[in-house]
Design brief:
Blueprint lengths: L39 E3 L13 E2 L10 E3 L8 E2 L6 E3 L2 E3 L5 E3 L4 E4 L3 E3 L6 E3 L1 E2 L2 E2 L1 E3 L7 E6 L4 E4 L9 H4 E2 L2 E2 L3 E4 L5 E4 L2 E4 L3 E3 L12 E4 L6 E5 L9 E7 L20 E5 L5 E3 L11 E5 L4 E5 L11 E3 L5 E2 L4 E5 L7 E7 L4 E2 L16 E8 L2 E10 L13 E2 L10 E5 L6 E8 L5 E10 L3 E10 L5 E6 L4 E4 L5 E6 L2 E12 L7 H5 L1 E4 L6 E6 L5 E8 L4 E8 L3 E5 L6 E9 L4 E8 L1
Parallel strand pairs: 1-3, 3-6, 4-7, 5-8, 6-9, 7-10, 8-13, 10-14, 35-38
Antiparallel strand pairs: 1-2, 11-12, 14-23, 15-22, 16-17, 18-21, 18-22, 19-20, 24-32, 25-31, 26-30, 26-33, 27-28, 28-29, 34-35, 34-40, 36-38, 37-38, 37-39, 39-44, 40-43, 41-42, 41-44, 45-46, 46-49, 47-48, 47-50, 50-51
Amino acid sequence: SPALDTGNPADAFTNEPVSGGRINQGAYGNTAQASKSVGLYWDGSTNIDWQTTTNWTPEQIPTSTDDIIIPDGMPNYPVIDDGTTTAVCNNMTIAANASVTIATNGQMTVSGSITNNRGAAGLIVKSDATGTGSLIVNNAVAATTERFVTGNQWHLMFPTLSTIPTSTYTTEGSDINNNFYSYNEPNEDYWNTTTIYGTTGWTSEVGAGNIRTDKGYLFNRYNMGDNTFVQTGGNLEASDKVFNVSYTVSSIAIGNGVTQTRDYFDGWNLAGNPYTSTIDWDSVTYNGIENGVYFYDGANYQYYVTGGGTTPWDVGITLNGGARYIPSGQGFMVKVINTGLTHNTTFTIPAAAKVHNAQSYWKNINTEVPDMIKLSIEKDGFTDETVIRTIPSGATKEHDAKYDAYKMFAWDNTKPQIFSLTDDLTTYHAVNTLPEITDINDVIPLGIYIGEEGEYTINTIKNSFENIDIYLHDIAKDIYTKLVDNTSYTFSSTAGTINNRFELVFEKTISNINNTDKNNVLLFPNPNKGSFYLSVNNITDNYRVEIITVTGQVVYRNKFFGKVTNEIKINTVSNGIYFVKIILDNNKTITKKIVIE
């Protein structure tokens, strides 16, 4: 009843008592200026700091159960800029001339809902070179979100509002920037580092009305400096985000010297993080996609593959600075699982995946991963990494959607790259998860891409294998280097993709072999036509030789006497990879690989 409202509508909101006067009573109930629910309101009497008690009436910092109001007419409005403490509340109402700003180092969680009477200018998430503010909300609400972009560099991006005009990125004054693309998976293409063959999947979005929210974008401020883009239009994403993705079996033949299988190039989709906070990739519902996520940082691809298997092997794998936490508005590539047929599927980023994460973007988590070796190739300060690991069950020697990540090459084709390969040399892996090594010897092909002729270094970042020795074998020089943490091997190379220069040799006979013995055993020529020479220099008088297929079948046995070079002929076997096992007279064994063409 109007008679119950004894307050004066002309009075300032701050004159109303916190829990009296106009609690939804009478003609002025339920209006921003005339109604005050039990809770807290911002008066800004001291400064802009959310965490200062004297800025609130009553004087207490809101908790996650408090409803708060940010009213009109205050001397200061809150800026959340505490890099260590998360601002929290339950429901938040922002008046028609008020505002809340999350600074670049700020983070806020609203457990209930936000009523934003001012619109986009009432809720602002800032971004600059130091970072981007983090806001977790539970309802779709108008806001302004900023996106800092470094100039003259490619970025994978995703919109954090529902209807951002495309012109936000493609038009700057009178200038039109044509470097704004989505990726269309069904287009038939394949590539060799930076050269794309066929009908490219990269599709210009210049001239489109609004940025689509069903896929990510590729953007470059080519020949321009850094910039912070101010994004408005529509509402924040708050609910589960379901992506519709596809795998299209291409019919065009692969040529131009590209050796990968067709599956390597099909099924790539560009998606992204739609929220104004970090997401945890381990919380994603993968459905029909592989577990790996691929991010381009402007110089190289970064990777994260969710941990698989049982403890302690269930730790995620990171490469080149990748991590399980994906920043707000970050675009990323995912790969749909190959079923052998063209098909559509989905994956879901649940709202529960939203987290505040104070790490720098895509930074590693320092968790020990067992039975793993991480290598890098380096030149002039640029590095690229690869991982080979084993788990007790679930993995194969082929590509495993749950455990592996394909190799994606840097877009600057002058930069070196390193990767492992399947035995047939047709699948390139950045992360290669294999079955537990049970044989005495195992060999993994190691590939490199060299953009410019010169000197390069392969480094061992981490080797966590126990009871297994791992050697880097330079086949061209026939030099073995035992790989422990911080081991380096420097070599010279011509330019090109080189899949037959290096291999990793895994040996379970820890004390049985040393580098001197290995480097005194020579096989030449290699590759060969089934006839080659074996020289054992100064390490034994008598030895036996077995030649074994990759499946373990022995195709040759013989015994030799004296320190002489012996010719071995196995012309009747099929072309492929074979292991030459040399058993010395002291029962030491040395295994080398040969390729018969």
